[in-house]
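Input record (Table S2, row 437):
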Amino acid sequence: MTASFDDIVSLAKKRGFVFQASEIYGGLRSAYDYGPLGVELLRNVKEQWWQSMVRQRDDVVGLDSAILQSPEVWVASGHVESFTDPLVECSNCNHRFRQDKLPESGNCPNCGEKGTFGEARQFNLLFKTFMGPVEDEASVVYLRPETAQGIFTNFENVRRTTRKRLPFGIAQIGKSFRNEITPGQFVFRTREFEQMEMEYFCRPEEASKWYDYWLAERHRWYVDLGMNEDRLRLRTHETAELAHYAAVTADVEYEFPWGWDELEGIANRTDFDLRQHAERSGEDLTYFEEGEDERFFPYVIEPAAGATRTTFAFLLDAYETEEVEGETRVVLKLDPRLAPIKVAVLPLSKKDDLVATTEEVAQQLRRRWNTEVDVTQSIGRRYRRQDEIGTPYCVTIDFDTLDDRQVTIRDRDTMAQDRIPIDNVLAYLDDKFAGAI
Ligand code: GAP
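Output record (glycyl-adenosine-5'-phosphate complex):
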């Protein structure tokens, strides 16, 4: 059986994946804290993205730009003027909603009344704050709503210092902020979130080829990390949906418990951003290659994914319940590369000799993989807990281990057990993980 929305929210809280931010003060709506397991999962998702988008490629380099940028950046990019969503207010209960996310029935999602919404007004999603001690118009700065602009403003710096030639990409992972009108569905839509974005600069005449390439490549990434292919699809945007900078966009969508929704957008941003920044800053952001007559603005293909949203989707997708010997077991069938804990070492009892051997084995494993030692409760309950948090392998130390220096290794998915010498544990697991982690 697959997961319901409530299954994941309760697992996330119960096992320490995600907590409501400021929970002891009643919680801050739409902000979340990632607990000990959540931070590992989120880091693993980001690490896999970075590996596949930057480290395993010769044509993409990384960047980490500031969250605060000159306000000019957001004027040039069009965000100050056009980064808006249509907001409507219910005249009965005065709740505000994003018009394009209202239910088809037209009823107010809060009070249920019909025909109570007035004209929509455009609401700007930029988070504003002040830089320095004076709080006036001149000191207004914005928290970035996308990581992409730091890439565009550094285009020439990166090109010059890396001597990259077209086509090449610049990738960045980091926090973004949007004053969303209707945050919700747990960590799916929040006001503070993390993005994984890459801007791929290419010749204008090659933009459509690279757009197709990145569509296929990004879809492949989710499938390779074990996401159920039947719950993934690519959907091209209608013209009316396109962001102000995009000529064409397709979303990688996942079938969430509430229906198909966006995981990632892949857009052809044309030369919109480089042109805008060149014009407003007065800097030359055109590209030139030796032996050619003309300078030109490169086009940009942008695969833009959400790290926090994707982490949520991996969690949902991995969750399964199975009947085992008349009991229900919950198991997170996460790809080992994503699993927060790779190996758990479990002594059969808390007796000193077993705990000493447990530590000896755990010490070896920790050098390679994120390893947890769990000594409390019955072995059955400890297996269930490790299944529930997605640990691919459990190593059990029992009383025979003290004599024969052998341990039992249990596979999360098949529950099959192998008995092997302690000295072979590293090689055994290395083989199972296929060197991938
Ligand atoms: N630079 C292009 C850009 O930002 P986007 O489609 O607005 O495009 C890219 O955002 C991705 O960022 C989305 O596909 C989604 O995964 C994530 N994202 C956007 N807004 C979000 C929010 N409020 N909460 C969580 N993730 C969000």
